[in-house]
Amino acid sequence: MVFGSKTTAGANLLTASKLKNLIQEVRGDDLRLMRWSATKYTKQRQSSLCDENLPLALRTISSSSSASIKALACEFATFCITDNPVQRSRLGEEDYGAIVKLVQSRDRHASAMASHLIYVATFANPLNHQGFFKAGAISQLAKVIKNKKSSKLAMMWAAAALQNLAASYCKKFKGRCMWNWVGGELVVKPRDNSVLSDGSIIRKEIMADSDLINTLKKLSCQGPVRGKMTDKNPYVGKNAIIGGAYDESPNIVAWAATGVLKNLALEPAARTLIEDGDTPKCLCRLAHSPDWLEENKGQGALNYLRPSDPCWFRDDDYLNGELCVDSPFLDGGGRTCADYGSASEEEDCETINRQGVLAREACCVCQRKPSKPNIYDESKN
């Protein structure tokens, strides 16, 4: 069934009440703030509810005079395209500019919903990926992230959108590129998983904004969540829900900011920017977060920054405890600090690499710090 109302121009636009009904119908009882997948209930209703109504929702985003109605239209569209490449492909050039413009709305919820839509629409869709970039999404999302008056929800979704824009997308594995270290470089494996949409030019534009990089690093270091998960101490990957209760929670931003840093680290020139300061320690702690979403982004960022895990905790079960982080180090034999094992042979720690760096100065293992490796699951990016 198509819900709509006629404007004076004769175009069908969705009303607030109809959009609320559509959202309830497609959402069911899925109240997750961060929906990394569509529920079975939503998948079963995407075709019947979205085939005709998604174009109307997109038209409403472009043509409605109400920011709150546009926000509802974005929310409905997001449910339609999550885990649904066919629906995701229905966005077109005329939609990119309208959605990007909404990111800068004075209505903070509308801004957040527009960024959320960019986040989902960009994933594994080359046309949307490049289309939002050409529509100026990077600068508009950056403004939200750098604006201290932005809501935490708007910051989170703006950073999440920037994360997916900074990615590259490939032919296989549902669009994911599987990056592996080979000879000191990150390359896509297997070779036949060719890149369909390269995000390198997008990453370089983000890297050019030093204020944005510094803000992302600070936001990343706000994590990980600490303490027991409760209604007042939410884990964004577990119990945080929509409805406004968590829109200003300090717990919801770190994962998204870290996701941007993760994908920026695909660029060799970005690694020095990210490594500067305390960010590596923050990433180590995030990689041990009790919230799987923070843990995944932290481990992913470390995986793209270094060929091996650089984090050495005195006590792996104590996030706030003593921590040592290896400096970047690669010796003439292609070994990193992690390859030195227990460094029982003192001469190993006296190795000097091609840059003149002494292993004893770079590697925590030479200082007798216990370690536990992280495992990054690429399938959850």
Give a structural overview.
By secondary structure, the chain is mostly helical. The protein has 16 helices and 8 strands. It has helices at residues 16-27, 40-63, 67-81, 85-88, 93-103, 108-122, 126-134, 137-146, 152-165, 200-207, 210-220, 254-264, 268-275, 279-286, 292-305, 359-362; strands spanning 5-6, 12-13, 169-170, 179-182, 185-188, 195-197, 311-313, 323-325. It has a two-stranded antiparallel ribbon with strand order 1-2. The protein has a two-stranded antiparallel ribbon with strand order 3-6. A two-stranded antiparallel ribbon has the order 4-5. β4 (179-182) and β5 form a beta hairpin. α1 packs parallel to α3 (67-81) and α14 crosses α15 (292-305). The radius of gyration is 22 Å and the shape is elongated. The relative contact order is 0.08. Residues 5-10 and 369-381 have low confidence and may be disordered.
Short description:
The chain is mainly alpha-helical and 381 residues long. Helix content is 47%, strand content 6%. Helix 5 (93-103) packs antiparallel against helix 6.
| Low-pLDDT stretches | 5-10, 369-381
Largest sheet: 2 strands, antiparallel
- Rounded to an integer in angstroms, the radius of gyration calculated over CA atoms is 22 Å
Strand content: 5-15%
Counting DSSP H or I runs of 4 or more residues, the number of helices is 16
Order of adjacent strands in the largest pleated sheet: 1-2
The helix-and-strand class reads mainly alpha
- Helix amount: 40-55%
Secondary-structure element order, N to C: EEHHHHHHHHHEEEEHHHHHHEEH
Shape, please? Answer: elongated
**Overall pLDDT metric:** 91
Separation, N- and C-terminal Cα atoms: 35 Å
Number of strands: 8
